[in-house]
Specification:
CATH architecture of one domain: Orthogonal Bundle
Strand order of the largest sheet: 1-2-6-7-10-13-14-15-17
Oligomer: single chain
Number of helices: 9
Shape: globular
Length: about 350
């Protein structure tokens, strides 16, 4: 009897230890946010180990920080700035990441027929959205036309073997802001995967890349920012969302006329410039979200669609097998066929268009 009781106690203790061990190894969600690339970045990972999660999150942020140093056209020390400063003078040696993104960016310019053009920087700088005075002025038509002559992605030359980029005409300049955040999210995901993490979500402002499943066992639920918030002065505008959907093993990026803008004589002037006119796009779209396998693609295409407008934008998305959510000035929401039944409208001011 004594031996039986001893064996029972031992079995009970072993079972208890195994149960406790199993509980300790259950997947948990770990999240951290930092300010990088001049915006709010959040990395969420799923892991049974806090130590592994912290290591993976750090690797992800390191990748974003590195790319910010390469691609930030506001920094005179970045690789992108160096290329612009040497325009019409000489090629500039850059990192393989910058060369890779530049090659991908030219690809987006080609498939959008120039609606997305990374050489738009001289015109954007003329509009001064980043350093807007209290009483902004509209640039003259002559000044816009003069600088628009410098906008031509076909004059970007890449030597992949030498890892060099050259802008053919003096005065040209690069702005990779329309693809950099999506690309950084892609690279952060690669770094996190390399740490053995089976699921993660990287959000750099409106550029989000996710893979795997959350701890709920479902795909990642993401929200789309309200382009016309009830409280425009909110310190956290990204928390005001008008729709949500699930993101699985893909990326989503949102471009809108509400991110950098000013209002003059009752008219909104925003930072998404149409390369063909040199003026803010007037397509009647106020927000475009694009889902794609990779972040850089979603990031570049959403800008192009906002410039092209609903009809041409939808045609582009369908031709490339991408999904999109387009919102016009009347708050009508247009979606690609594949998203029917997959998007939830949360704000009563918006409605799905027929």
């Amino acid at each position: 009897m004594k031996n039986y009781c001893s064996r029972a106690v031992i079995i009970f203790v072993l079972c208890s230890l195994l149960f406790a061990l199993n509980c300790s190894r259950q997947d948990q969600m770990f999240k951290e946010s930092r300010v990088l690339m001049d915006t709010f970045c959040t990395i969420t990972v799923v892991s049974p180990s806090e130590e592994k999660a912290e290591d993976a999150i750090e690797a992800g942020f390191d990748e974003i920080k590195k790319l910010d140093n390469y691609l930030n056209n506001f920094s005179p020390d970045s690789e992108v700035s160096a290329v612009s400063q040497s325009a019409g003078i000489k090629p500039v040696h850059v990192s393989k990441e910058t060369t890779d993104l530049m090659d991908k960016t030219i690809g987006i310019s080609k498939i959008t027929d120039g609606a997305f053009d990374p050489t738009i920087e001289p015109v954007i700088k003329l509009w001064a959205f980043s350093k807007r005075p209290d009483n902004p002025s509209i640039p003259s038509k002559a000044a816009i036309e003069n600088l628009r002559k410098l906008v031509d992605y076909k004059k970007i030359k890449i030597d992949s073997a030498a890892s060099e980029i050259y802008l053919e005409e003096k005065g040209m300049a690069l702005d990779l802001g329309g693809v950099a955040k999506g690309y950084a999210a892609d690279k952060a995901v690669e770094a996190i995967k390399a740490k053995g993490i089976k699921a993660a979500l990287v959000a750099i402002a409106g550029d989000i890349r996710g893979y795997g499943l959350s701890t709920s066992g479902k795909a990642w639920k993401v929200g789309i920012q309200n382009p016309r918030p009830e409280n425009p002065a909110s310190e956290k505008p990204w928390e005001d969302i008008f729709a949500s959907l699930y993101l699985k093993d893909s990326a989503i990026s949102t471009a809108g006329d509400y991110q950098r803008f000013f209002i003059k004589n009752g008219k909104r002037y925003h930072h998404i410039i149409d390369p063909k006119t040199g003026y803010p796009a007037e397509s009647d779209l106020i927000s475009v979200s694009v889902m794609a396998p990779e972040g850089y693609m979603a990031d570049g295409i959403d800008t192009a669609v906002l410039i092209l407008g609903p009809e041409k934008g939808m045609k582009l998305l369908n031709s490339k097998g991408l999904d999109g959510i387009l919102v016009d000035s009347r708050k009508r929401v247009f979606i690609t066929k594949n998203l029917k039944g997959r998007i939830e409208i949360l704000n009563k001011g918006y409605e799905l268009a027929n």
